[in-house]
């Protein structure tokens, strides 16, 4: 029972967790967290381990062989477990930091870029592959970035309003802009500069995709009212989250059927994103806008 309670406390709100995370990845990540809890291992170290696993995955995909695809899929699986574990460890130990949260997000993009670059190299090493697969690979990579940005935005906004977090999404951006302005001309601190710089670029793109005006809240809403009107749609948003994308790629990699993965991303997930965006705009109109 104690482990069950600890597991629950290591999670975000269930409504914003992906189904596959809840039933597979996070339970495995929790076992890892319990094994390192009493050591000096930090959440950031688990994040770096996830990055390394993602990069190794990309190297295996680059071989373009069937065994390389399977090995790449296995290391991509390890990446997602490690990627879940850093946040769980931070929540249990209550030692998470804003920079650590950003680094966690950056890790996702490093791993995905490594994997997609590896797949592209694998295609290049096998000229017999249909040319259109490379085009679909590029299109899928771009769509995954856009889908992740939208899912992350609506998930963060849901948590901000429902949990009534004092430091909201918008205020957090302002803090990092000030911090970046202070350290950008200093020598050293290259990691902080790189991570915060990527984060600010990411949030600017996120704002344009979600039509969010920077520097202010979108509307007035009580925690209960926002939860009631968004509790269903947020579950649909996370259906196309990073874990769903990763799992689809892992399964398709085992059978070397990247074409199926591309159409899942380009067809199914893009269609879902479009429909959810339209519905979300209608839901948002139920709230009083902040002028």
Rg from Cα: 20 Å
The level 1 CATH classification is Mainly Alpha
Task: State the fourth-level CATH superfamily.
Answer: CDP-alcohol phosphotransferase transmembrane (TM) domain
Low-confidence parts: none
CATH architecture: Up-down Bundle
Helix content range: over 70%
Shape: globular
**CATH topology assignment:** Four Helix Bundle (Hemerythrin (Met), subunit A)
For the secondary structure, the number of strands is: 2
What's the tally of helices? 12
Characterize the main sheet: 2 strands, antiparallel
What does this structure look like?
The protein has helices spanning 2-9, 19-36, 43-61, 66-93, 98-124, 131-162, 169-183, 190-210, 223-230, 233-237, 242-254, 258-284, and strands at 219-220, 288-289. Helix content is 76%, strand content 1%. The radius of gyration is 20 Å and the shape is globular. The protein is built from twelve helices and two strands. It has one domain (2-289): Four Helix Bundle (Hemerythrin (Met), subunit A) (Up-down Bundle). The chain is mainly α. Helix 2 (19-36) crosses helix 4 and helix 3 (43-61) runs parallel beside helix 5. The model has no long low-confidence stretch (mean pLDDT 85).
List keywords for this structure.
291 residues, Four Helix Bundle (Hemerythrin (Met), subunit A), two-stranded antiparallel sheet, 2 strands, 1% strand
